[in-house]
Design a protein that fits this description.
With 107 residues, the chain is mainly beta. It has one domain: Nucleic acid-binding proteins (OB fold (Dihydrolipoamide Acetyltransferase, E2P)). It contains one helix and five strands. It has a five-stranded mixed barrel.
Length: 107
């Protein structure tokens, strides 16, 4: 997963890059952003995960997609981000396709 850092250009909203971990709500996705930072005392790389709720107007993002989010006005109690674009689509896992075929064959 790419290193996700927040970028803010002059007069523009902050953007983050992360992986979609849930798309079960209408027009809302949950994106996990992983940030890595060097520990000051132990001199080790420490990674921190944070989940963001984001607005997905057209329900285009799927589980496992790498997406870019853009900061926006508060849209609800938890949503402060919106989907800007899908950077990379998630590949379908062959095992998942096989299990779908077997369940349909059983019907």
């Amino acid at each position: 997963m790419p290193d996700a850092t927040a970028h803010r250009k002059a007069g523009r909203q902050k953007t983050v890059v992360g992986e979609v971990v849930s798309n079960k709500m209408k027009k809302t996705i949950v994106v996990k952003v992983t940030r890595t930072k060097g520990h000051g005392f132990y001199v080790r790389v420490v990674s921190h995960d944070k989940k963001f709720y984001a607005h997905d107007e057209n329900n285009t993002a799927r589980m496992g997609d790498i997406v870019r989010l853009e900061e926006t006005r508060p849209l609800s109690k938890l949503k402060r981000w919106r989907l800007k674009d899908v950077i990379r689509k998630a590949a379908l896992v062959p095992e998942a396709l096989a299990s779908l075929d077997s369940t349909e064959a059983a019907r």
